[in-house]
Amino acid sequence: MSTPSNSELANAIRFLSIDAVQKANSGHPGMPMGMADIAVALWKHHLKHNPANPGWFNRDRFVLSNGHGSMLLYSLLHLTGYPLSIEDIKNFRQLKSKTPGHPEYDLDLGIETTTGPLGQGLANAVGMALAEKHLATRFNQDGFSVIDHYTYVFLGDGCLMEGISHEACSFAGTHELGKLICFYDQNGISIDGKVEDWFTDDTVKRFESYGWQVIEVDGHDTEAIISAIDSAKREEQKPSMICCKTKIGFGSPSKEGSEKSHGSALGDEEVQATRDNLGWNHEPFFIPEVIYSAWSAAEQGSVLNESWDNLLIQYKDTFPEKTALLERLIQSKLPEDFDIKMDQFIEDSLSKEGSVATRKASEQCLDFLCAELPELLGGSADLTGSNNTLSAASTSLTKHDANGNHIFYGVREFGMAAMMNGMALHGGIKPYGGTFLVFMDYARNAVRLSALMNIPVTYVFTHDSIGLGEDGPTHQPIEHIATLRNTPNLYNWRPADLVETSIAWKAAVSSARNPHSLILSRQGLPKLPLDKAQLSDIAKGGYVLDRADNPELQIIASGSEVGAALEAKAILKSEKINIVSMPCLDLFNEQDHAYRESVILPNIPKLFVEMSHPASWGPIASSMDKIMGIETFGESAPGNILIKEFGFDANNIASEAKKLLG
User: Fold this and answer.
1) 264 close to 80: Cβ distance less than 8 angstroms
2) Which tens digit of pLDDT belongs to each residue from 435-479?
3) Closest CA to 542 of 613, 616, 488
4) From CA 329, how far away is CA 316, in angstroms rounded?
């Protein structure tokens, strides 16, 4: 049989997608039908990958930002040889299947990342491209381009309507991410119909203004798209946007070019009509062996992977130290002596005197960590001096020097968070980024996806309460800590001094799966009366800071309120009060029952003290307890005045404690 044509290869994608959506009676067939020719141009003729080794580090990255069209990706993975069977395709959108409606991340199957929330895949890809440029700058030597791959993105109108596309694409142009190549499925259709009534941007001018190369092609002309990719690769500085004019639902006699093919099955009659129209004379889910053979990337992928392995062997002979570091970063392993050095840093923190804001304590930790861990890549959304994310060991990462380890993201909280997700997914980097806690609202959906995908990103959230003062209620977080704590898989630390902050940072950088947030104060906080024996308990998320022999009350606090609780106990001159510090409620709740009851004693009244919405403490509190929280927005005044006004000064805490003591 003759070699299949590009259109036949594209039709294999179309009908796997059509049949899977039809069987599930759920999904989005229109995008895979419309982008199939683009997929042939990229996946068959340009993409560097190895189905036998999905985690090969120097593979090209492929991101499906218009992730609702996930059957396009599943079809490609199945056809090219990844461990995704035809039964998996048939099981599309079913419980516990390998083919959910909006996949997030499953590298074993070849899924780098896709997005349900539109635009985030594009921002993830910017992070991946930045990671590639940063690592290439650090490790490549003359004759040894050991980091050398592209990041490709499929995206649609919805991705470009979402505001995050501006944040990320503006950043990408500024940083000259020439190995970022995007394919815009310019079909002019969204869920509500033709976009001409609500999306009339001049996309070409928009991206040219960002500093991108823009190429316009017929999205159904595979050869023209192949040529456009060649042109994009030749442009080494500017990212490329290839605008592909397509027809959604291509080949469907009644639904091509219509929103009717966007988000629902075509229907049995239309499926058959499309088969007839495109000459696909095969039963549902049947792919001829000659097409499987033409699509298979196994042989080429193995050759490419082996060539890189051989290059790395030669690189190791010439640059053994760089190779050892690169291999460690690829494996996401910390240095062998890291725990010893970090534990010593924490112990040394016990002896440091004086009041310190935990945002400043975080900076002291970063002074140590950035010097020890070259994989740390930090930044801030235009609040570097306030977030204290620029360490003594930091240098600026710019378009001219991608070797730096600190990124100035500009006022782009959402973009920053999504780009950090992309960096973590790329590998070789541990990203952290800072903003005010209240601006977590801007970044919220990307924070959620960090947790959903179980990727180790660290968020530095400073100015954590009304204690920030005069900026007023727009800047004073109230509900944010409760929101973060209600997010599965996310560990949220609100430390009370340098020691607790150090332990929080150790947990964050040691994490292989979970994201962490560090919730830090603007105002100075007193040093806690800690000893070495308490360090292991701090690492459990909550512990008894000050223990009474026969307690009749326990005051449980986090962050800046811990020092106030200690002061309140001193005011009462009581030997009947336990003071519990709870730097990480999420982690404490995971401890065994015996430990939790040794810290928070049953049948003894509890006073919870936190300048935040009280929702976090409801599951622990009983009718005999009191929660001191905030259920209103703040005020504009100096921080110390507000702390007293809202009742979180030591005298008022002592007064509330006295009531519970009877």
Assistant:
1) no
2) 999 999 999 999 999 999 999 999 999 999 999 999 999 999 999
3) 616
4) 15
Q: Is 8 considered catalytic here?
A: no
Q: Kind and range of the H or E element at 565? A: helix 560-572
The neighbour count for residue 622, using CB atoms within 10 Å, is 9
Cα dihedral sign, 101-106-108-111: positive
- What are the tokens at 132? 């590639």
pTM of the model: 0.97
170-198 burial, b at 16+ Cβ within 10 Å, e below that, comes to bbbbebbbbbbbbbbbbbbbbeeeebeee
Tell me how far apart the alpha carbons of residues 260 and 258 are, in angstroms, rounded to a whole number. Answer: 5
Spatial separation of the C-alpha atoms in residues 55 and 569, rounded to whole Å:
55
The pLDDT score that the predictor gives to residue 410 is: 98
* C-alpha distances out from residue 379 to 272, 450, 623, Å: 54, 17, 44
DSSP 623: T
Residues of the chain with pLDDT under 70: 1
Q: Which residues contact 334 (CB under 8 A, 6 or more apart)?
A: 373, 509, 510
Show the tokens assigned to 495.
């430390």
Strand partners of residue 434:
380, 460
Q: What is the pLDDT of residue 1?
A: 55
Q: Where are the alpha helices (DSSP H) in 140-264?
A: 157-161, 164-174, 203-210, 222-234
* Per-residue pLDDT, 2: 82
Residue type, 313: I
Q: By C-alpha distance, which of 408, 389, 333 is closest to 505?
A: 389
- Distances 392 to 175, 364, 366, 509 between C-alpha atoms, Å: 23, 9, 8, 18
The answer for residues whose C-beta is within 8 angstroms of residue 446's C-beta and 6 or more apart is 120, 123, 414, 417, 418, 420, 421
The edge-to-edge listing of strands for the beta sheet with 516-519 is 406-408, 376-380, 430-436, 458-462, 516-519, 491-493
**Count H helices, E strands: the chain?**
27, 19
Taking alpha carbons only, the member of 308, 314, 129 closest to residue 322 is: 314
Residue closest to 266 by CA, chosen among 115, 620, 276: 276
Distance between CA atoms of 560 and 653, rounded to whole angstroms?
A: 13
Bridge partners of residue 186, in order along the sequence:
245
Order of strands, sheet of 577-581, starting from the edge strand that comes earlier in the sequence: 543-546, 577-581, 553-557, 606-609, 626-628
Please list the alpha-helical segments (H only) found in 480-551: 480-485, 498-510, 535-538
Nearest CA to 472 among 267, 345, 634, 619? 634
Give the 3-state secondary structure of residue 446. Answer: helix
What are the structure tokens assigned to 118, written together?
């539109």
**Per-residue pLDDT at 652:** 98
Centre a 10 Å sphere on the Cβ of residue 30 and count the other Cβ atoms it contains.
33
Tokens of 265: 């099955």
User: What's residue 351's pLDDT?
Assistant: 94
pLDDT value for 337: 97
Which pLDDT belongs to residue 229?
98
Question: According to the model, what pLDDT value does residue 260 have?
Answer: 95
How far is the first Cα of the chain from the last one, in angstroms, to the nearest whole number?
91
Catalytic residue, chosen from 112, 132, 413, 610, is 413
**DSSP-based three-state secondary structure for 182:** strand
